[in-house]
Amino acid sequence: MPTRQPTEPAVRTLRQHERAVRECDACELSAGRQHPVVGDGPVDARLLVVGLVPRRHEDLQGTALAGGPRNVLHEAFDLAGFSPDEVRVTSVVRCRPPDDRAPTTDEIRTCTGHLDAELALVDPAVVVALGELTTAVLLGRSVPLARVAGYRLDVRGVTLIPTHHPVDVVRGVPEAAKAIRRDLLVARAVLDGRMGTGAQARSELAERLAGQH
Ligand code: SF4
Hints:
11% strand; alpha/beta; single chain; 9 helices; 45% helix; Uracil-DNA Glycosylase, subunit E
């Protein structure tokens, strides 16, 4: 999970978190937003899904995912046996950049304090990262998505499962829909105890590699 210092002191309650996001003007993106993303879903969710940045529809609705990408994610929830009411969905960057451009490194760095605070507040068992950049933020280093998608990674006691961003499905990226469905099924299996956590997966891999010598 991110190790950078939050942009504000660690928040302790949902109300404080939401207020910190809504009142934030720590970067220039605050000037053009309609509604920042505070996070959707229960604060005690065991699964936290993290997207990257709001676009036009998310900004208008103040949600982490809207329209086609939201439908893609909800279909995957349904297939994996998650009710949308039991999952929290949030975003690395909270305010929409102009013309839906990608957020800059500085904007991501500035906004990550809100994600740190939300992670501390929700304390999920499993985090699903949507897309390569979100995975890099949560993992603390860049890794090609193709190398880690669907894996159970151990990030300081939390199981991180990288997958495609649902917008990839809307854009016609081959296999993206299948990968998202697969990776949500993995999240379900970890939460149900049918599949090991990221820590267990790492220990099994170490044992296998040790056995090769
Ligand atoms: S993008 Fe993040 S850091 Fe920038 S103003 Fe919005 S909430 Fe604050």
